[in-house]
From TrEMBL:
Assigned keywords, A-Z: ATP-binding, Ligase, Magnesium, Nitrogen fixation, Nucleotide-binding
EC number(s) from the headed UniProt entry: 6.3.1.-
GO MF, one example: ligase activity
Organism: Halodurantibacterium flavum
Required cofactor names: Mg(2+)
Entry protein name: Glutamine synthetase family protein
Location of the GS beta-grasp domain: 10-110
The GS catalytic domain, residue ranges: 117-451
Family: Belongs to the glutamine synthetase family.
Gene3D superfamilies on file: Glutamine synthetase, N-terminal domain (3.10.20.70), Glutamine synthetase/guanido kinase, catalytic domain (3.30.590.10)
Known function: Catalyzes the ATP-dependent biosynthesis of glutamine from glutamate and ammonia.
């Protein structure tokens, strides 16, 4: 691997620009989307073609606890990690010349580890390609910039802007609102450029300090890699300016939640054409089948799209988060939206995913629903032409109910991989159990002396 720098993407080579790299961070996304791995001197990385981590990292909860292995006896064997140099990226916030590299994860026989989120997404992409299709996605990232919070017992507050006043909500699309925390946005742009990421747009969302970043459409694995990296760079940019960047689904009481809207289209491998549009630009039956798949199977994957107890605080009426499975053209009250587009850009937007989901798993789960719809050939319900917020709720309202639906849906479990689904469910049920043991301030305030 002595010539490993020649395998780097252009942006990483430009970042080095003749300098000698000091450190390489060898990382793997875990179930939560947290980077696990190790940092090593670049000189050692150059001499080491692979390294090892125990596969128990995929059994760890967000609190640091460990779920029991659903497969029975567990000896914590090592996985083999090899660098995917196409993912090599600068870590421009560090004091020295540091690169990040996402690693492929296999067992010692060379098989993909089925519980690794990046491998789960690859499995789903392979299902499409076996049918002669290539899935295309375009994610939108919503997040909050908030004031530093070092006491979990205290509410989250909006950040202080350059005017000396706290950011205000209900300022969607306001340019002056974005300017309030312009220095953070500038660093986000600079870090993204150093890492070779193209931002399609940045805008102010409806919450106080809430920002949205749109990314260009493309390959699902590559875009999940970018979101994985973006979460880290945004947090680092915020810390430079005495605030936090958070991807929590609902960080501030009374403000809208943060979504990861996912736009999908599917391309025919032979023709390169969008299968959602016919020769004359009309909507195809496959377009309708994809929508029907989302309507049929999204409830079973909500446990992935909304993976924490806080995620369900986002699913409330009139807070810009659909709580339904209706579909409609250019209708943002529906959970499944068809945006305005030219025929070659025809796509379906899933508006249910939260920004707190693992990007690999969220995109995989959404694509699985559409894939099953394409395979089954069913038609969706009648298009919703009005306010879908007025309709009955179609979704589980807590993590426990969502996990029950997830555990019962065999088509989804088979598509995502039974071993992964067993581990995911075990981790999430332990997290839910841990949460239920916590007594909240609301309970102390209203129940202590009144019941």
């Amino acid at each position: 691997m002595s010539d490993w720098t020649s395998q780097l993407p252009e942006a990483a080579r430009d970042y080095i620009a003749g300098r000698k790299p000091d450190e390489v961070e060898c990382i793997v996304p875990d179930l939560a989307g947290v980077a696990r791995g190790k940092a090593m001197p670049a000189s050692k990385f150059a001499r080491q073609a692979q390294f090892y981590l125990p596969n128990s990292i995929f059994l760890q909860t967000i609190t640091g606890d460990w779920a029991d292995n659903p497969g029975g006896a567990f000896t914590e064997p090592d996985m083999v990690l090899t660098p995917d140099f196409s993912t090599a990226s600068a870590a421009p916030w560090t004091a020295d010349v540091t690169l990040q590299v996402i690693h492929d994860v296999h067992d010692q026989s060379g098989n993909r580890i089925p519980t690794a989120p990046r491998n789960v997404l690859r499995r789903v992409v392979d299902l499409y390609q076996a049918e002669g299709w290539t899935p295309i996605v375009a994610p939108e990232m919503e997040f909050y910039l908030v004031a530093r919070n070092i006491d979990p017992a205290q509410p989250i507050m909006p950040p202080m802007g350059r005017s000396g006043r706290r950011a205000m909500g209900k300022q969607a699309y306001s340019m002056s609102a974005v300017d309030e925390y312009g220095p953070v946005i500038d660093d986000i742009y600079d870090f993204a450029e150093a890492q070779g990421f193209e931002i399609d747009g940045i805008l102010q969302e409806g919450g106080a300090g809430q920002v949205e970043i749109n990314l260009q459409h493309g390959d699902p694995v590559r875009l999940a890699d970018e979101i994985f990296y973006f979460k880290r760079l945004i947090r680092e940019a915020a810390l430079r300016h005495d605030c936090f960047g958070t991807f929590m689904a609902k960080p501030i009481e009374g403000e809208p939640g943060s979504a990861m809207h996912i736009h999908h289209s599917v391309v025919d491998l032979k023709t390169g054409q969008n299968i959602f549009s016919g020769a004359k630009g009309e909507e195809t039956p496959q377009f309708m089948h994809f929508i029907a798949g989302l309507q049929s199977y999204l409830p079973a994957v909500i446990a992935i799209l909304a993976p924490y107890v806080n995620s369900y605080r986002r699913y409330v009426p009139d807070f810009a988060a659909p709580i339904n499975l209706e579909w409609g053209r250019d209708n943002r009250t529906t959970g499944i939206r068809v945006p305005v587009s030219e025929p070659d850009g025809r796509r379906v937007e899933n508006r249910l995913a939260g920004m707190d989901c693992n990007p690999y798993l969220g995109i995989a789960a959404s694509l699985v629903c559409g894939y099953l719809g394409l395979k089954e050939g069913k038609m969706p319900r009648t298009e919703c032409l009005g306010d879908a917020y007025m309709n009955d709720e179609d979704l589980p309202l807590n993590l426990g109910d969502a996990l029950d639906l997830f555990s019962e849906c065999q088509p989804v479990r088979e598509a995502l991989g039974p071993e992964f689904c067993g581990v995911y469910e075990a981790v999430k049920r332990l997290e839910y159990k841990e949460f239920l043991q916590v007594i909240s301030p609301w309970e102390r305030e209203h129940l202590l002396l009144n019941v």
